[in-house]
Design brief:
By secondary structure, this protein is an alpha/beta fold. Helix content is about 40%, strand content about 15%.
Length: about 260
């Protein structure tokens, strides 16, 4: 079953690991492995229930975990981001988080304060004015949005060395985040936190923040991302990176 377009495969096949020795069993078709991984990510189906056309589910899953250990999904994301940034330059960015249910992520999820304390996780994302997902990290749902920012911001998500703008909601109205942005030539435009500025006569709200919310909606079209069915943060992050990379390639016309 061929799901990954040939144009996309041409861009990422060089990143795939190759068996160095001819001893032992021949490796499974890596493109078919990625097709199976994409199918699970898109549908949210259990590994053992995936169509037999992809091969044994145990083989697909074990190769998925191997690709994670080798950092392949980070490499795919890096290539997609570099590919996108070659022809897209902006000085405006937005950041936000989104929570997901996580029935199986017992060891790394947290109590979601927006879902009656049920187990949940968060993904933190930075996008540009086009809504391109340029950086993404994951963690427990009870971790404050502002704490995610440091890890997400560390990604090389921009190619503009001039003055840049980062918009965010009131959770990011924090002096430490403002200083971090300032040190990296960013101006943080965060919505006013009313709890910190109770005497303020006018609360500031940055415009166009719907762009980051739209990107989160794009990622949530993948059922394996909308609900976190993985047991480890590494596996869930791999899905998020893979989906983000596909979106970046798509926005640069790789699928055309």
């Amino acid at each position: 079953m061929n799901i990954i377009p040939e144009n996309l495969w041409k861009e990422i096949k060089k990143l795939m690991p190759k068996k160095k020795s001819k001893i032992g069993r021949p490796e499974s078709d890596i493109k078919n492995i990625l097709n199976g991984i994409f199918y699970v990510m898109k549908t949210g189906i259990q590994w053992q229930l995936m169509p037999k056309e992809f091969g044994p589910a145990s083989t697909i899953h074990s190769r998925f975990m191997k690709l994670i250990r080798l950092g392949i999904f980070e490499k795919i994301m890096t290539k997609a981001r570099e590919f996108y940034l070659k022809n897209n330059e902006t000085n405006w960015y937005a950041t936000d988080t989104s929570s997901s249910k996580s029935p199986l992520a017992i060891r790394w999820a947290g109590k979601n304060p927006t879902d009656r304390g049920k187990s949940g996780i968060k993904k933190s994302i930075i996008v540009d004015r086009n809504g391109a997902p340029l950086a993404i990290t994951v963690g427990p749902a009870n971790k404050h949005d502002s704490k995610f920012f440091y890890d997400t911001f560390n990604s090389k998500f921009y190619n503009n060395d001039g003055l840049k703008i980062m918009t965010a909601d009131s959770a990011y109205d924090d002096i430490k985040i403002k200083n971090l942005c300032k040190d990296n030539n960013f101006v943080l435009l965060a919505a006013t936190n009313p709890r910190r500025k109770k005497n303020s006569s006018k609360l500031f709200k940055p415009k166009h923040r719907w762009i980051v919310e739209r990107t989160i909606s794009w990622l949530n079209n993948y059922r394996g991302i909308k609900t976190c069915w993985t047991k480890t943060p590494e596996a869930y992050l791999a899905f998020c990176l893979f989906a983000s990379a596909i979106q970046l390639f798509n926005m640069t016309g790789v699928f055309v």
